[in-house]
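Hey, can you fold this one?
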Amino acid sequence: MNIKFKRNPFLLFLPFLLYYVYYILKHKWPVLYGDEPRYISFAVNLLHGFYSPPAPVINLWNGPGYPIALMPFAALHLPIIFYPLLNALFYYLSIIFLYKALTCVAREKIARFFAIIWAFYFNIYTYLPAILTEIFSAFLIAAFIYSVVLFYNGGRFKHLVLSGFLLGFLTLTKIIFGYVLLSSLLVCLILLVLGKVKKNYQNSLYIILIAFITTAPYLLYTYNLTGRFFYWGNSGGMSLYWMSTPDNLEYGDWKLPSLTNLLSPQPFNTTEGDSLLKANHSAEIASILKHEGAEQDDLFKKAAIRNIRATPKKFIKNYFYNLSRMLFDFPYSYSYQIPQTIINILTGSLVFWASVVALILSVINRRRIAYAIKFIMLIFVLYFLISGLVSAYARQFDVMMPVVLFWIAYMADKLPKISLRFAAEPVENGLG
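Sure. Predicted structure:
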């Protein structure tokens, strides 16, 4: 392989960009579906100087991060196909950022191998043709990894600021990171008091504080809109409600307010599933849906807390169901098993057991692990654990695969050379 080509990741991974463009053009639906219209409408709202309609009918279902990225396309009134084509660029850049981050902490061969694994991570291909946040979030995560590694390797101020900005913009894209930021801030403050290498924890706090500063305009906006401090959105209450469901045949996955089972991969019987959902939830849902915006969100949260207090063991079960769905995309309420589940279990199991091995190695060698890796993993672990508290799906784990691969690659690089060949033995033992 030509040395110049080999060392230039933009050329090395260029075939993936071309393939992603082809994949999007082949699989993009001709019309908008699911959540796609909402992201485009938010981008249009931003172009007109607002984000949500005024109270009481507020709409803060998701953060403004992804709509901001879509604004140029909305401003130019480009055809719909241009929006998902942006995903090809984001995915391609995420591969490059992951590769460049790995070259800072591991051998080039390992960096290339794990970057290619990410490039072929077909679980996330589902989102390539979709105008959804997953590919953009993975791009931000890979860029965040690279900037953190650069900062802790060289300590340049611009990398500190960039790390905080990327983490903040990720929070604006996936608002659950708002609670990750708050949790990581508390953890780093505790470590700063108890730890020995205080400079590392101080730098982590700076990154987190810059992330909060990045999100401050949005939080000020939501405060002016709702009168509530630290208010990220009004979708969390409904998600928490479905996660807290006390009914045995329901596993914490989100359902439509119309109480249909259409969001499951394969409803076993739409009529039967719908009738069970309506029997369990119609009265409460109908009562809550009479209200709007933040008030509706509050009522869903109150109902969820009531469910949790009444059936705490079921809530714990739902929490583990959520973690299982993130890893294996299973189980779903009122659904058949489908062949795709086998692939999800295989890929999820590979990631799970590789992570278990990496975790054991991390605990054994915890004092020797570079602090940048520890900080990145802190963010990921908190995100994973907090995500389980609301309705969770495989896509919430898929976007963090750059972190998982970065961590596993780092551990693999530090291991002694492993050979699959037996050691040579004398033939005199009679078995040769």
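The mean pLDDT is 91. Let me know if you want another pass with a different chain boundary.
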